[in-house]
Amino acid sequence: MNRLTLSMLLLALPISLAAQDDLMNLINEGTKPEINYASATFKSTHILNGQSIEKMAPKQLDFRISHRFGRINSGAYELFGLDQANIHFSLEYGINKWLMAGIGRGTYEKTFDGFAKFSILKQSSGARVMPVSLSVFTSAALKTVRWNDPARPFDFTSRLTYVGQVLIARKFSPSFSAQLTPSFIHRNLTGSISDPYNIFAIGAGGRMKLSKRISVNAEYYINPDPGSYNGQPVYNPLALGVDIETGGHVFQLIFTNSLAMIEKGFIGESTGSWGNGDIHFGFNISRVFNLRKEGKP
Question: Could you give the percent of the chain with pLDDT greater than 90?
Fold first, then answer.
């Protein structure tokens, strides 16, 4: 290599480096900053008894079957509660990215219920930082069991109970998620004069993954003034359980002091006490159907 060639190469080197810097700047300017949304904060639309921050994806239908057996302390004659069974069926459908709606029917007081869940905020990082996900849940329940007090009016509207909840959740790590659930319940008519018409409570729930398909869950609602239901003392609901995912199914095995499986029931009508052994074993089974046509978003 002669001196002339070497000189030309040395002169060309800064020009080449400057051109590469300009090219990288152009690429960076053309790349949009990414927003990373948290996913699978909970595995199901329910932590255990109560709603989680999760909702069904658009055009996906979830068919849920829930069982709660009798109290374990009922003894061997009742096979520790397994001779008794309460069932709740529900359909949950994702209407769009921010709205889910559902209907259900349970043997507990022969109750029909309808509900909706709205996504307001979604936890994210990156170009947009949002520390929590937030949704609003609302439901109405119609009790159709026969009324035992003919002296009091009990028309259609008297049978209705309404629930409103704010769901605030955060996925702290790939293994751990937690949720707070401020709740309000209104009864149009109470079973006895000592029962409250309005109930305020706040729920706390969490999920800890043990493996890719198994997690342990816990859920507790604090009611500052639980009062009574049909004249019986009400206790704060506590539920402990395990989620097991098997392909398109999610099984939830549950121990709880609540017999009811919808919000107005387990928050305001749990007359069993964990301290007295009034514990119900039960399970939820979730089966998801994709109703979206192939090739369409």
Answer: 73
